[in-house]
UniProtKB/TrEMBL annotation:
UniProt-listed InterPro entries: Amidase/PGRP_sf (IPR036505), Amidase_domain (IPR002502), CBD-like_Golvesin-Xly (IPR033803)
Domain N-acetylmuramoyl-L-alanine amidase: 23-165
The protein's name in its UniProt record: N-acetylmuramoyl-L-alanine amidase
Signal peptide residue numbers: none
Transmembrane segments: none
Keyword Hydrolase: yes
SMART domains xrefs: Ami_2
Enzyme Commission (EC) number: 3.5.1.28
GO molecular function per UniProt: N-acetylmuramoyl-L-alanine amidase activity
């Protein structure tokens, strides 16, 4: 196989949003290309809603030390696949071998997605994750390979690459496998403090739009007290199973260093405390929990903290794993 001219059609058939970047069918590195798997990367660029694909130009054109194209597709902040090349690209370097991918020329062996997030203080967005899983499942199906043929660069690299960071690669492969098995979608739902009918808090919780790290238009805040006054997030969990619970808060030095999040699991409430003075403006994992099916208050933020500083209730996300 010298090229993969089917890539755009396969992605679109899987429901992935595609933007074709110029002459992708003829833009490639010289040399062999006979892919058996998919390699996941992050770009190390900071993407945002207003700047969704900061690394696109570099991925097309390359750098002074590495000629482009640098990946077959770039996955932007919104989960859109920008298809750059149908052939060999400079993304993988030497493979040290990982899972079923042998050691050797990584650029021959693998198709690369550069997922555009910085990986240091920015995680992959939910849209990037879901699109990457769907695209990987579709391409591996086309290649006739199972989900173990999807790897992260940090698994195959011989030079200490760390990408893609903030991702459990075994969980991501399991989501690819579920997709390939026809299980369909990776269920995920986000409830923000402004989500109609899904967030409840007493009037003791104020409303603020002070921090630019907020999710959506605003968030709720309250002084810590030794009393139960929980802000609740209601989810309609589709089936009993294991779900990753993530929270988003704006960070500020005046916020609480041990804000208690309550997860109502299949075996009772569990509390996870987070430091809301740091790591704001992004999804942070509270853990993976067994949850029962049904529509109920599933995650809460309690004011009952012994630490000083405002307790923040902004957004919560559940994802089936
Ligand atoms: Zn990489």
């Amino acid at each position: 196989m010298a090229t993969i001219p089917w890539l755009v059609d396969v992605l679109r058939a899987a429901g992935v949003q595609v933007v074709v970047e110029g002459d992708w069918l003829n833009r490639m590195r010289p040399g062999s290309f006979d892919p058996i798997g998919v390699l996941w990367h992050h770009t190390a660029s900071t993407s945002s809603a207003s700047n969704p694909h900061p690394a696109l130009g570099i991925c097309i054109n390359g750098r002074s030390d590495l000629p482009g194209p640098l990946c077959q597709a770039l996955v932007d902040y919104n989960g859109v696949f920008h298809v750059i090349s149908a052939g060999r690209c400079n993304h993988a370097g030497v493979s040290g071998g990982s899972g079923p991918i042998p050691s050797g020329d990584g650029n021959t062996l693998m198709i690369g997605w550069e997922i555009d997030y910085n990986g240091v203080n920015q995680e992959m967005t939910a849209a990037q994750y879901n699109a990457s899983v769907a695209a990987t499942a579709a391409v591996l199906t086309r290649l006739g390979r199972d989900s173990s043929y999807a790897r992260g660069h940090r698994e195959t690299s011989t030079t200490g690459k760390i990408d893609p960071s903030f991702i459990d690669l075994n969980v991501m492969r399991a989501d690819v496998a579920a997709k390939m098995a026809g299980g369909g979608t990776t269920w995920s739902a986000t409830v923000d403090n402004a989500t109609s009918g899904r967030f409840t808090a007493s009037a003791n919780w104020g409303v603020s739009s002070y921090s630019s790290q907020r999710y959506g238009a605003d968030y709720r805040y309250a002084e810590p007290v030794a009393a139960s006054d929980v802000a609740w997030y209601r989810f309609n969990v589709p089936a009993a199973g294991n779900y990753r619970v993530e929270a988003w808060w704006p960070a500020n030095s005046g916020y609480n260093s041990a804000a208690p999040y309550i997860v109502a699991t299949s075996s009772g409430n569990q509390t996870v405390r987070v430091d809301q003075r740091a790591t704001g403006g992004q999804w942070r994992a509270l853990g993976t929990f067994a949850l029962p099916a049904g529509d109920a208050n599933r995650v809460g933020v309690s004011r009952w903290s012994n630490s000083s500083g405002l307790v923040i209730a902004d957004a919560v996300r559940l994802t089936r794993v």
